[in-house]
Hints:
By secondary structure, chain A is mostly helical. Chain A has 14 helices and no strands.
Amino acid sequence: MGDVLQQLFGAALAIGVALAACVAYFWGTNWLLDRFLNSDNVDGDAETRRDRLRDSIRPWLFLLPALLFLSVYLVYPVFETLRLSLLDKTGQNFVGFANYTWALSDGNFQRSILNNAMWLIIVPSLATAFGLVIAVLADKLWWGNIAKSLVFMPMAISFVGASVIWRFVYDYRGEGDVQIGLLNAIVTGFGLPPQAWITIPFWNSVFLMIILVWIQTGFAMVILSAALRGIPEESLEAARIDGASDVRIFFDIMIPQIMGTIVVVWTTITIVVLKVFDIIFAMTNGQWDTEVLANLMFKWMFVNFDYGRGSAIAVVIMLAVLPIMIWNIRRANAEQGTR
Amino acid sequence: MTAVTESADLDAVKYEVRRKNWFARIRLGRVLTHILLLLMVALWTLPTVGLLVSSLRDKDQLAVSGWWTALSASEALGVTRIGTAAEQVAEAGHFVIRGNLFGSDTNKQLGGFGLSNGEPAATEPGGSMAMKEGGTISVAADGGFEWTSDTEFTHTRGPRIFYLATIAPRFTLDNYYEVLTSNGVWRSFINSFTVTIPATIIPILIAAFAAYALAWMRFPFRGFIVALVVGLLVVPLQMSLIPLLTLYNQLAQLFGAEDGKTYLGIWLAHTAFGLPLAIYLLRNYMVGLPKEIMESARIDGASHFKIFTGMVLPLSFPALASFSIFQFLWVWNDLLVAMVFLGAQQDRLVLTGKLVSLLGSRGNNWEILTAGAFITIVVPLIVFFALQRYFVRGLLAGSVK
């Protein structure tokens, strides 16, 4: 108990120290700037020059801590990982692209690429589709908000927690035993033999993907639901007066109107999929042909301690993210231009 | 008399008309919408409901019946080794061994008992059965048995009695008590809080100042920094792990610590990993604040520092709340960063790490796993349902922009 209290005290202290340091830094540097670069005793050109100087220094004071954190924890590691991926296991000797050529010929890596590709196709499409359907249905019913809240709930659950939840659904007992997993209970209810779902190659990956779809659908639903509300009522009304069916309205009016949002949702989920690690780690740890890049990278890094190969796999994940990253940046820039 | 009948008739007619209207109002499409959505909601909630129900069930029942049968009695086979000769008492010329097949468990009802695994319910409750050690045994419905013999018992190894029992539905908090006390989940709960709270609070001020600068100050490279933040939003954490771990270990060596795995290290790491989203969200929000107020305050001679602390920060409360919820959920639910920067020692595990370790060591003990998993997800669920409004607002600001 003593060390628990000490630990909690440490955490409280850290919060206090961090906040005090932030306040001291931001307030202190501003005070220093105004104190030593003030334009109280100078006139004319000198005054404007000083004013300008202060105005050009101040933004950097505001930005400095954030930039420090970002450079040390995100920018520098990107370059360092790139460098390490060209070095050997210990990070001492230059080996050129040997880690990459190794990866291309490695069975597990090829399997991971294939699986990741499958994840990339299935998870974003299913999550977006389900999210869209639920958003449309829920907007029509009086209990829609409750329904949305419940579908949204898995967003708050950790990947590991969700893995346990679904492992229970997929639980397998030998034929003849009572099945306590929901899926096998349904299957045996139809008179079919029970299956050890997470050990059947190919399909087991699909069962793992379902977990992520289950989590991400709520996200897609919330964003798409907001976009649907943004569709001008007149265009829907006009279509109804023309006698268009609900299905026609959905495909011909709603979907084209929110296409931009659908793409955003799709790419956001794609990023999540590329980085997915916890689910595979907790459910199969890559056994039975379920390996994916993020889990493979973890193995090479923390089981085999091969920093070169681990870094090479990380770079491959980064390369996969890169197109979306560039697209995001261009979109953000375009928005700034119009402001 | 007739008046009363008439009005009753009229009511009947009215009712008929209303009923017809009611039928007419139902459209097939509408019913289908209800059914479809209900089905979806069921799919999305049942797995979690199953987990919660299971975690509250008696662990013997949990192992032998599905959670959807939690309210009905279940049957289980069991076996008990009954007493040896040492436990016999002499009564009126007989020798008797007494006891209960179910031990102290009062939740079971006997369905039958027998001497072999093949025939566990050969004898009805209340019936008696000859034993090869001598005498006969009879077992009552509550499991209490009486083994009587005319000659003295001499066996030194108690025979095994097989039985079929009906377990009445029972809900209990025992599973929670067990995981919290004997499986170290309580410690992990504390660890999760230790990691999460500072990692949620520290980035807020840092991000808010940066976001203000990017939203309302003019300086060279501003566009570049905004682009950098947007880009860093999606950089995979995997890129950061090896260099940072190496860095931490070098620092630890420098200070003579045994390894670089400290709470301070993980707080700072989570702070940094949360910053791009924090800056992005807050900047988007601050840019939307009314320009006129800012400008008039500037003209009145207020400094940027004053405007920020006096006006922008309080006005940005909804965005700050959104980010805090995101960061809290993300840090609490994180597994990778905690494993890398805090390690896998039992007393260092956060809840997610603990759950993975339980999956490995207690993979078939569903009473442990379900209770452990529920403890892991309950805090984020409370945060989520209490602050859903801010969470949704943050999501919308963070991705649709």
